[in-house]
Write a structure and sequence with these properties.
This protein has about 300 residues and is an alpha+beta fold. It has seven helices and nine strands. Helix content is about 25%, strand content about 15%. About 35% of the residues are buried.
């Protein structure tokens, strides 16, 4: 479909076109996104190796009409630490010829904002998870916000609890080095699958709007227009043994999911409103929302898995 453009719910200022002038990917330049970082993301989103294509900046003003013929020189992706300038880019062969670039069809795991149960609904394992994450991190590991009473800090799962079955089938427990989990446990409530986050960062993390890139010095990556998360890195206390630190493989998996969702525009991924008014019937709210059945199943699975995990 020539001249197709991605309909994204989020702000985008970098657009990648193919030789047919279809937009196949997009991103938001928060201020420091470089070409070498984009190359890493392209390896996730595109099924064609990065060495087989190159971005060319479109020279037309505004939305291009003829990007194949009206573009600048090829831009090298390898070891290119230049910051990407917002605009339109056409992806062609290094020689400037149209090339087919298949897009990865994988979509992220649907997830709601996961808050551990409290009070009578809490389980010994969920309480242990919360307490271990609090004791290890002490503050929001993204913003550095501290709260001795933990009123605004929440223990978040990196791999969503709602997808316990996929955790087990994917053998994610084997990625853990935590020696404080019972052999009979799934491991999904290991401290290595947790981060202490302030409520806003938790919402962004669960919505895949925020991620940690362990291959880039544990850089905090924001996929939205949120300057407060710019130039941050994951806060890790160096006196904590490696076997209790956040699991690198799990952070990498979450980052991959965030890249897939955001660079493909979120098409087909459910967008759920998490802003419930006090005293409202959450079940009714869910059932009346778009894709309510999927959301209901996800919420229900998370609540049940608090008991099973």
């Amino acid at each position: 479909m020539p001249d197709h453009r991605i309909e994204s719910r989020q702000k985008r200022n970098i657009h990648f076109l193919n030789g047919e002038n279809d937009e196949i990917s997009s991103a938001f330049q928060t201020g420091s996104l470089t070409w070498v970082e984009m190359s890493q993301r392209m390896d996730i989103v595109f099924e064609l190796p990065a060495e087989d294509f190159a971005p060319f900046r479109c020279l037309e003003n505004g939305d291009p009409k003829d990007p194949v013929r009206r573009h600048g020189p090829p831009i090298s992706l390898q070891a290119n630490n230049n910051v990407i300038q917002p605009g339109f880019y056409v992806l062609l062969s290094p020689a400037g010829e149209p090339v087919r670039i298949p897009v990865n069809r994988q979509m992220p795991l649907p997830r709601t904002v996961s808050r551990p149960p409290s009070g009578s609904s809490a389980t010994p394992r969920s309480e242990k998870f919360r307490d271990r994450v609090r004791n290890r991190d002490g503050r929001c590991v993204i913003t550095g916000i501290a709260d001795p009473e933990f009123l605004a800090l929440e223990a978040a799962h990196i791999f969503p609890l709602a997808h316990l079955e996929l955790w087990v089938s994917g053998k994610w427990k084997q990625q853990l080095s935590d020696d404080d989990i019972d052999t009979s446990e799934s491991g999904i409530n290991s401290v290595q699958n947790g981060l202490l986050l302030d409520s806003s960062a938790h919402l962004f993390f669960d919505k895949y709007a925020l991620a940690i890139d362990p291959d880039n010095g544990y850089k905090v990556v924001s996929f939205r227009d949120a300057p407060r998360y710019e130039n941050l890195t994951l806060i890790r206390r160096h006196n904590i043994p490696a076997k209790y630190q956040p699991c690198r493989a799990l952070l990498k998996h979450h980052f991959r999911m965030a890249v897939l969702l955001n660079m493909k525009g979120g098409a087909g991924y459910p967008e759920w409103d998490e802003d419930y008014s006090e005293g409202c019937d959450q079940v009714a709210e869910i059932s009346e929302s778009d894709q309510g059945k999927l959301r209901f199943e996800t919420v229900l699975a998370e609540r049940l898995n608090h008991l099973l995990a």
